[in-house]
Amino acid sequence: MVPPILAEVIRGDTVESVHRGHVSVINGLGLEIASIGDPSIVTFFRSSAKPFQALPFILSGAADELGFTDDEIAMACASHSGEKMHTSIVANMLERLKLSEKDLRCGVHMPFYEKEAERMLKVGETPTQLHNNCSGKHAAMLALAKQMGADISNYESPFNPVQKAILRSVSNFSGIPIGDIKCAVDGCAAPNFAISVSAMAQSFANLVNPARFDEDIQNACKRIVDAMIKYPKLIGGT
After folding, report:
1. C-alpha–C-alpha distance, residues 47 and 38, integer Å
2. Who's near 15: CB < 8 A, 6+ residues apart?
3. Would you give the distance in Å from CA 210 to the centre of its chain?
């Protein structure tokens, strides 16, 4: 089916562009209460998967053992804009791991925050992997790798125990069996997951109301949700 129009961008009195898509609305009981288009369509979770990618980092005990704070947990879930407040926190996370920016595997790009990108260009400052919008997620993956005794040199590989733990997390929260989740390389080099729009919605319903899980998972969910609510500028940016 042709996806329905969800939004139009209007310039003057002329429609300049249209945005089509599919929507699934899940309530706290896990029941779909509204939808648009075809919520069964499968697409990639992309950065919306980050809270579920961060859960194993907390459940493994790495966050507690290394003393990661709420703002650092927020950074593990962030698609940040590469400002100083973001890069300094990720650098601190890596320092606590006795690692450096060179140990990340997310790649380099200019900050998404235009003012910071312009400042760096003016002074000739070269971006690093800390500026990557996924650097916090990757720092948490490195912490999980060290906690598990996994190889930190290829923590982003789908065959690494880190990524296998993350895949189990996505499966647990979405309700989709591991064998039915299609994986491919995300823009930051880590695996990402193709599931239905309705399964994505179900994942978030389970994150904010994790009553069906055991107490450890419930507590981990609360830490992630609280951190993301407490530090919205770390999750995104100014």
Report:
1. 21
2. 8, 9
3. 18
| Calpha distance 67→48 (Å, rounded) | 25
Rg (CA), the chain: 19
Q: With H, G, I as helix, E, B as strand and everything else as coil, classify residue 26.
A: strand
Two tokens, residue 225:
């949700």
Q: What is the pLDDT of residues 76-108, one digit of tens each?
A: 999 999 999 999 999 999 999 999 999 999 999
- Token look-up 């994150």 returns 207
Give residue-wise pLDDT tens across range 39-84: 999 999 999 999 999 999 999 999 999 999 999 999 999 999 999 9
| pTM, full prediction | 0.94
Residue 229's contacts (CB-CB under 8 Å, 6 or more residues apart) are none
- On whether the CB atoms of residues 82 and 110 are closer than 8 A, the answer is yes
Q: Are 32 and 39 in contact (CB under 8 A)?
A: yes
What does the alpha-carbon distance between residue 221 and residue 148 come to, in Å, rounded to a whole number?
A: 20
Cβ atoms within 10 Å of 16's Cβ, excluding its own = 9
CA dihedral (180, 186, 188, 190) in degrees, to 10, reads 20
Question: Alpha helices, DSSP H only, in 4-134?
Answer: 50-59, 62-65, 70-76, 84-96, 114-123
In this structure, how many other beta carbons lie within 10 angstroms of the beta carbon of residue 109? 16
Q: How far separated are the first and last CA of the chain, in Å rounded?
A: 38
